[in-house]
Amino acid sequence: MTASRIDDIQRQLAQGLARIDPHHRLLGRPTSLRVIDGRALEITFRDVAGIAEAEAQGVKRVLGAESTYSVSPQTAEQVTVRFVVPL
């Protein structure tokens, strides 16, 4: 169940980013996936130059309304963007 759900999330994200990320702020960035307690999937984008609220909300629409996100500084010029999606 979890593996197929993760595959679905990855597919939705790949298809959705092509539509909602015209400036390629997330598309093509180093990305990691991590399952948290078997109940949620954390998707982390590193080396992001910046992200607008509208873009983050667009990703949330692709991932589902119950997903959350956070943005944290990585360096002076780049941020890390994390989305957490319930499984």
Please outline the helices and strands.
Elements: H1 2-20, E1 31-36, E2 40-48, H2 53-63, E3 68-73, E4 79-86
Helix pairs in contact: 1-2
Outline the structure in words:
The chain has helices at 2-20, 53-63; strands spanning 31-36, 40-48, 68-73, 79-86. By secondary structure, it is an alpha+beta fold. It has a 4-stranded antiparallel sheet with strand order 1-2-4-3, with helices on one face. Helix 1 (2-20) runs antiparallel to helix 2 (53-63). The protein starts with a helix and ends with a strand.
How would you briefly describe this protein structure?
This protein is α+β, with helices and mostly antiparallel strands. The chain contains two helices and four strands.
| Helix vs. strand class | alpha+beta
Main sheet properties: 4 strands, antiparallel
- CATH topology title: Alpha-Beta Plaits
Distance between termini? 9 Å
Provide mean pLDDT, rounded. Answer: 92
Radius of gyration using CA atoms only: 12 Å
**Which architecture name does CATH use?**
2-Layer Sandwich
**How many runs of DSSP E, i.e. beta strands?**
4
* Proportion of helical residues: 25-40%
Compressed to H and E, one letter per element, the order equals HEEHEE
Low-confidence stretches: none
Beta-strand share of residues? 25-35%
Supply the key terms.
34% helix; alpha+beta; Alpha-Beta Plaits; 2 helices; 87 residues; four-stranded antiparallel β-sheet
